[in-house]
Specification:
alpha/beta, 273 residues, 8-stranded mixed beta sheet
Length: 273
């Protein structure tokens, strides 16, 4: 699915984390991880950067990490490491290779990411996800038996839509991704696209999110169930948008539970070798 079904007015997108935000997952002491900065070429010829983390003891699962509006921010590079420590190969990708170049390390602290978000399109994002999934499938024996996606905010909506891209994914995980209505970059509404979805879906939301209402979450859940898509939808009462952050100490319990659910979801949907 490489094009939106229709144009519609945009809704505002919030930045998911402060610039110094970090995943609320403690590193595993002594964990050995093989990391590599990569440049991938998508099917439409676009080139983009990524950070690949290989698990020392792979369980056969691999995951494409879809960031928020900032693209390949250090938050998402660190998240790839945490997945690898858990035995899951991970590839965090950038969105802006076509418009800002692939030199992520050269971008300044005042990088105007929102301008570049406005220049992305669902078609190119789809090609990028496909290229990332193919890179993970090519990692070698004992790896990439089950491919997942996970995204946050802007990337959360995109992660839900990856289930409709025909990529033979085992599952898609979205943290506070908009489920209904229009969004930037002509990404379709996941709740309107469940008939095309394959694989399982895990949706994680904050009950105090001022942008994603309970009605929007319930509409998505009902649409998934009506389409026969295996799904788990979790809402944490009192948690705001972007609660999954080490700085959000008040929501540490929700973050811990969410991480455990993510790992459990991946393990449950990864076939045994």
């Amino acid at each position: 699915l490489h094009a939106a079904s229709r144009e519609a007015p945009e809704v505002p997108l919030a930045m998911c984390f402060d610039l110094d935000g970090q995943p609320p997952i403690p590193p595993i002491e002594g964990g050995a991880i093989d990391t590599e900065e990569v440049v991938l070429r998508a099917g439409d010829g676009g080139r983009f950067a990524g950070l690949l983390a290989r698990a020392e003891k792979p369980i056969g699962a691999a995951i494409v990490i879809l960031p928020d509006v900032r693209g390949l921010h250090p938050y998402y590079e660190e998240l790839a490491l945490r997945f690898a420590e858990a035995g899951i190969d991970a590839l965090s990708i950038d969105y802006f290779g076509r418009t800002a170049g692939i030199g992520v390390r050269e971008r300044s602290a005042d990088f105007d990411f929102m301008t570049h978000v406005g220049e992305t399109r669902f078609s190119s994002l789809s090609w990028d996800v496909q290229a990332a999934a193919e890179r993970l499938r090519a990692l070698g024996e004992g790896r990439g038996r089950a491919i997942f996606t996970i995204g946050f905010c802007f990337g959360g909506r995109l992660a839900f839509m990856t289930a409709a891209m025909g990529l033979d994914l085992a599952g898609a995980i979205g943290f506070y991704g908009w489920t209904v209505g229009a969004a930037r970059s002509d990404v379709p509404a996941p709740a309107d696209s469940t008939g095309l979805m394959r694989g399982a879906v895990l949706g994680i939301f904050g009950g105090a999110d001022q942008g994603i209402t309970s009605d929007a979450v319930e509409t998505f859940e009902a649409a998934l169930s009506a389409a026969g898509v295996p799904n788990e939808i979790v809402t944490y009462p009192g948690a705001p948008h972007s609660f999954f952050d080490r700085k959000q100490a008040d929501y540490a319990e929700a973050s811990t539970d969410a991480w455990e659910r993510v790992l459990g979801f991946i393990r449950a949907n990864t076939p045994v070798a």
